[in-house]
Give the backbone structure.
Amino acid sequence: MSTSYGKNINITVYGGSHDDEIGVVATGLPRDFRFDAEELYAFMKRRAPGQNAFSTKRREPDIPVFVSGVDSDNTLNGDTFKAVIKNTNQRSSDYNNLSFVPRPSHADFAARMKYGEAVDLRGGGHFSGRLTAPLCIVGGICLQYLKSRGIRVAAHLYSVGGIHDDHFDLAGVTDKEFDLLASRHEFPVLNEDAGEQMKKAIEAAGSEGDSVGGVVECAVIGLPAGLGEHMFDGMENRISSIIFGIPAVKGIEFGNGFECASLKGSENNDAFATDGKCIFTKTNNCGGILGGMTNGMPLVFRAAMKPTPSIYKEQDSVDMVSMTPVKLSIKGRHDPCVVVRAVPVFEAAAAIAVCDILSDSKDKI
C-alpha cells in the first residue's frame, strides 16, 4: 500500500482503524525545533472522535506516544521520528456481517479486488479516516514550526449540506480571521448564524439515519513569493497530493477555482500594484499561486468532501460469495458529517506540504 508522502519531509502512516495502534514515521522534520506538547494535544483533540454531538460516538483520546526522534523536552533531535496512538475503543463485532458484502461508496469492494480476502476492512481498516490521526501528529508539529516563522494556516467549514459560511477574503485574509476561528474550534465558521444552520442540517440528516457532505476552505498567510516549481512539482500539485490522502475528499480548487472558467480574462486577472516597498495583487483570484509558485499573496484552497458513506438507512449491495443481491444495514458508530472533524486535518496536511516545500528553497527549514 502507498502510505507515504513528501520529498524532504517524508511521512509514512501505518495501522488500521481496529488495530491495536496506528502511527506515523517521519524523516526530515526541523531539527532542534522544540514544540509545545499541550498545544499539540489540544490540536489532536479537535480531530478526535466523540467530542460533540456532530461526531461518531466512538471515543478515543488520541494522545500520541513518542517512540523516537523527540527528546524529553519535546525537541526534535534529527533522528527518525516515530509516534503511535493506541486504539482503545474499537467495536469490531459491528462489522462481522460485512466480510463479503461491500458497503456502498466505501473502499471495500475495490480493496478486496486489489488485495484479496485477507484485507482488513474492520472500521474501514487502513482506508479509514481514523488514519488521519497520525497525520495530525506531524501536521500539528509543522503548524507550530510554521507559526514560529511567521506563517499561519487555518481552515473553516465553507459549506455543509449546501449551507455556506462567509468565505475568506482572497486578497485580504488576516490574523483577525484566524484568531476568530481559533476561538470557535469546536465548530469552525466565520459566520455563527450560518454555523447554526449547518448544525441543524447535520442533526436532521443524522436523525434520518443519513449524512451530509461539505467543503473546507483553507488559507496560508505569511508565505514568501517563489516557493514551488512549475508543471509537475508546483504548490497545487504537492498540496493536492496530500489533501487527496484525506478519505472522502473528491475535489480541490485554488483561488476562485472553477468559477474562473465562466469569467473573462479581464475579470479573472489579478492586477499588480505596489506601495513603494512591496509588489502585490489587487485581487487574488489565483489563490496565491502563479505557474505553480507562490506570489506572496494568501494561499487559499477549498476541498469538497462527500457525505459519510456509512449511513443507517437500508442500502442495496451484493453478497460476493453467493453473487446475489442483498439488503445492507450498517451498524457501528459514524459521523453524520465527517467535514467538521476534518477541518484540523486540512490544516495539518497543508502545513506538512508547506514545510516540505520550504525545504526545497534556499532558506531550508
